[in-house]
Amino acid sequence: MISFTLNGCDVEVGGGEESLLDVLRERLGVRSAKDGCSPQGQCGCCTVLVDGRPRVACVTPARRVVGREVTTLEGFEPALRDRWAQALVGTGGSQCGFCTPGILVRLAALADATPAAVDQALLAHLCRCTGWQTIREAAAAVAQGTETPDQGRDFEAARRRATIEGGGPQRVGPEVVLGAGGFAEDTAPPDALVAVPDAGGGWAVGETLAEARRAAQKVQGRRTTRPLAHPLEVPEGDWAVTLQTTWVEPAYLEPDASWCLPGGRPVSPLANGGAFGGKAASIAPAAARQLADNHGRAVRVVLSREDTVRLGPKRPPMAAGVRDDGSGLVRVARTAGISQAISAVAPALQVDEVDVAGPPTSAAMRTAGWAEAAVLLAAVRGKAEVVAPNGATAAACVLPGGDMHVRVSCGDPLDPVVLRSYCVGAAHMALGWVTSEGIAVDEEGVVHDLTIRSFGVLRAQDMPHVHVEIDPPGAGAGAGNPVNGSDAVFAAVAAAVWLDRGLPPQWPTEREKLA
Fold first, then answer.
1. How far is the C-alpha of 34 from the C-alpha of 44, rounded, in Å?
2. Cα 407 off chain centre by
3. Which end of the chain is more exposed for a tag (fewer CB within 10 A), N or C?
4. pLDDT tens across 398-419, in order?
5. Angstrom distance (rounded) from CA 61 to CA 58
6. Domains (ranges, CATH) in the chain?
7. What is the sign of the dihedral through the CA atoms of 313, 193, 126 and 170?
């Protein structure tokens, strides 16, 4: 038995070999601390306070907190917690809401939340959605005691815009910031069996997550020293511009999860957005349904970070050459729907799909195919201007000093705070795509980079400021009904960054420098 103080109350639980995160979530029902990479200790989603100091719970042995005081988000002074939640909602500093509870815990514990201290604190965290800027703005608002513009805001319109931008149902509000977005891992019945992938392609099942992972003989992920490879060669030809890309991990923070009752309907792994197409064909729901029927009781299916990397789809690598008139040839890893995506914006590009040994790929990934085509066309034209297949338009440029300016037209903005947040997040993802993101895959197609920090996602300190200009309804090619605008921004920023760097022929362009 181990005993400690949790949010002001004395608790005693069995065990002691488990992590603090396992004890909090599995034994004590604390849901604000999230499992994004356990036990890698690299994403910060499970951050709690131990004797007032931030700790990553997934790599903290539960026995280390015996007799100590543990504070989770639930134990914060309500006024302080609400002030942070309102600030993050008001700036758009939370989208899916999976990483923000841990970020809030760490930032709220800062003795002096100066911009430099905030950036230093954020080094312990990863966020895929927001691009960091709006989180910094929320921290500044709290530190300065300024109000964020929520009075009179239409949260139904905000929800609509978030749903359009995220590509799936999404909520907006303080409860989302606090981690109550309805994630599958948080809503499963407490007596559900737990199933995780095993080494043989099946499922290991246990009464607890720790038991299931022991039965599966889970192997800790690692970051390889193997260099990134570009699996496809640029086709021969007289090209104005060439480009080779590599395998790119979507790197969503919430790993795939689902649960189901016998004969029931499995819970979606996309309860509140996130993933940007990465979970469109997740194996978790079907497995939860089948296992629940087989065992005659509720089953919760949970993928570890390593599982998502091995089993989840990637952005397909490609190699292309383009002439000045926009014609050319694109070789791309064979992927259902990718040729149509490329042709949607660049009909003069010939597409050659080839078999490549490697992890699964998907055209459902954010802008897969058409963004690469749009970037190639922008490169030969010398202008980072994009028209997305849905009619949205975006233009981007890198300013002197490295900041970025983005202009987007996508119909009625509905909620400028949410739209701006998604555009900043898209700029962050695009900058990383061009400069730093990729995973090592060997000649046999085996993925070697299995830790979340090895994917190349840009840290807060690596992210420049993004100035976002939103066209009013009726302006530009995106006039009319609201459509997704951040995907067009993603492609436009990628083009702007590539042009600014001088069109180096291989992405990522600055992996070693940023590492």
1. 9
2. 23
3. N
4. 999 999 999 999 999 999 999 9
5. 8
6. 2-75 (3.10.20.30), 78-182 (1.10.150.120), 187-219+256-303 (no CATH), 318-514 (3.30.365)
7. positive
